[in-house]
Amino acid sequence: MEKIVIVGHRNPDTDSVCSAIGYAVFKNSTDRENLYIAGRAGELNSETKFVLDKFQVEEPELVETFRLMVKDLQLSPPVSATPNSSVKEVIDLMKEFEIRLIPVINEEGKPLGIVPQSRIARNLVESIGRRDLSKNPVDVMMLCRVLNGRVIANSRGKKILDGKIFIGARRPESLQKSMGKNDILLVGDRYDLIKMGLGIPVEAIILTGGVEIPSDLLQEAQKVGTLLISTHYDTYTTAKLIDLSLPARSLMIEEFPTVFLDEPMEEVKEKVLISRIRGAIALDYEGRTIGIITRTDLINIKRKKVILVDHNEGSQAVDGIEEAEILEVIDHHRIGDISTLRPIYFYVEPIGSTSTIIASFFFQKKVQISKEIAGILLSGIISDTMNLTLSTTTPKDKRIAKRLSSIAGINPENLSRELLKAASRIEGLSPEEIIKRDFKEYVFGRKKVGIGQIITADFSQLKELKKEIIKSMEEIKNRENYSLLGFMLTDPMKKYSEVWAVGEKGIIARAFNTEEKEGAFILKGILSRKKDFIWKIGETIIRGT
């Protein structure tokens, strides 16, 4: 089943998180072909934590980015060789698994080098006509492994062969003039040549075609110290296989690109494309080999699939949203700047809460809602509408809230008081955390606006921290290049908001035809950031008034 993440905006509020959880439950109930996972685009605020604890619903998984990372690839377990693997064993692995790059690893699984198919091909071409092992000595045991051969005489315990190779296809007296004691003779059942070789005596004789050697010649080999190896391969094949008896370390490239689990695929792509081996070794956090990434892997990359709830603006979305495949958008805000490559299900309704929309889907499709899900969706509605009192509240919000409260067995008034109390907790938070706990970013033309909001019936604790909060707002504005940065202190009981601002504060003054007094704008009847506040800010900026 394909994994699809449902996630709300950055600095998630209760409606964003609860609607993501609710929609994941709904989609999993109506679509059995995919797996829907609720996500959160940041740390949960105190109100949302309270809601999830109250209804015993698990926190959604944290989604930090939609950028494709190495860890998102479905890499096959690595097919690797050791430094002492033969070139033939490397070739056999390439043929069996249909791959062209083999990493050479140590006992800990860490890469020492890589053997590309092209390197083997080049070596085979260069070995044509070469009959000298002095530059590339061959290990006796590895040679036996490659030849499927056996040692039948080795009285001197020879381990390495580094002489010239001669094929037993000439007259003994002619061949004898060319050979020396360090050389190797490949011969079938030409016993006259075997006897000649023992007479020199040569370093080794490789008996091809599974030939049996007479006992007198075997005894002579033991006496003079000549290594005898027997193989069932014919002489021609044996000669070719000797070239494949070299260790993998002799052909491996020691300088190779590596990538790590948390490395973005954009950077990986660049490494692979400029690499002379046309690939890169993927490593885990301990530096062990976990796979090979090739150009083919880059072509077959699948973008992460996502459904956005409670937002449709790039500035509010999870990092890397432009690299994801957006399947749906469910929202109740203004139409933003999210764009897609193909048609999608885009549902935006001007009501008080995204949780209202999600709950309505359950009712329309007659999908059963558990008490827990009814409770968190009700909490999302109450939180985003200030218990159905904001100007954004619609009759639909009220109808849906009533049905959910009945299912959950919850009194909305009591739940509202609990949420307000939980939302106003700021103990242990830094000034920036207070500002960013419920924060939205908007772009109007060339101006970027950021607005934080806290809903509380008691401003006293916040006002004690006003200097520190204003200082932090200045730092955020300068660091993140905001034209205007505001912080709304909203009292739902007295129905007004006090706004602290830095940057182009005149925008607020013109939008609401008011003046800043004692470092604050007092906006009566302005409770909703979405419907009462931000649209006027945007209109003022766009019109240039």
Short description:
By secondary structure, this protein is an alpha/beta fold. 37% of the residues lie in helices and 22% in strands.
Helices and strands in order:
Elements: E1 2-10, H1 14-30, E2 34-41, H2 46-54, E3 61-62, H3 87-97, E4 101-105, E5 111-116, H4 117-126, E6 138-139, H5 140-147, E7 150-153, E8 160-161, E9 165-167, H6 172-178, E10 184-187, H7 191-199, E11 204-207, H8 215-224, E12 227-230, H9 235-242, E13 258-260, H10 265-274, E14 279-283, E15 289-294, H11 295-299, E16 305-309, E17 325-331, E18 345-348, H12 354-364, H13 371-385, H14 395-408, H15 412-423, H16 431-436, E19 439-444, E20 447-455, H17 460-464, H18 466-480, E21 484-491, E22 496-503, H19 506-512, E23 521-524, H20 529-543
Helix pairs in contact: 1-12, 1-13, 2-15, 6-7, 7-8, 12-13, 13-14, 13-15, 19-20
